[in-house]
What does this fold into?
Amino acid sequence: MSATRDQVAHLANVSSATVSRVFNNPTSVSPNLRESVLQAAQTLGYVPNKTAGLLRRRGTGVIAFVEVNKEERPYYWGNLRSFDWFFGRALRGVQKAIEDSTWQLRFYSVSTRKELIELSGQCDGILAYDVDTLEEATLFEDLPIPSILSHHLADYPGEHCVYTDNRLGGKLQGTYLKNLGCVSPLYITGYLDTVASHEQRIEGFLSVFPHAKVLDAKIGSENAIDVLLPQLEEVFKTHEIDCLAAVNDLTLFEILLKTNCTMPSVGYDASPFYRFFKGPVASIDIQSGVLYRTACSQLITLLNGGSVKRSAVEPELVIIHP
It folds into this structure.
């Protein structure tokens, strides 16, 4: 005979309601209590009945992981294959939020508000991936089911939002270089008029180095850095700069690979390719795993009748080579 929830509760010395919360809203239970329940469940061979949980909720038991299509944009980092690792980190965070629950995750892409309304009938809640404009955010307003938006929405006023503070990230870039004694940085960015996160990062950087030299280029496009190389080489020769920063790691890394630059450098995103480089190199980790674990946990809280407030996950400086 299969173990019951009450037996797990008795062994863990908790209430049956606590066992239910562990498997349906794990972040609502303290880590120590959650571990006790999970150990008791493992000892007894208890497996929660997902069908029964679904019937009690009278829903689908599904959380939809939704990405808004961005194919029409002249630049979108998520369309670059070299950024697939970022998606993986985000999913790791979601996995940690739901792995001990009875919720299931399904993936969707949408382009219109109508598609979102139709999707609302196929799931109980929506976790929105990389909503990065206010126009996109409005697509999710007043849906018939709960939703949580992530992650480039520092200026979005809605409560159901988990975001990264890109202005702080830019400030951390500048502070890193300043602490090394640098005084004349070159900051390479692009699409400042259309990508809010890029604009926020440069704002943060300029709060530390208000007179930094800024180069706005079509980063991410084919041969963009090759076109810039002659200009960069001339700047390097004049010694008018003593350090280098970029709006993302891939831009910085391509420059470092194609030039003889060994001056202190800092990128953004903490991508997994940093071991190729020498000299002082750092990056900014926006902690995508933490972002999406937090967002998914907040969504589960809403699905269980709780309330949430907009939340920021602060980026961290990662010193790759001291």
In short: The first strand starts at residue 62 and ends at 68.
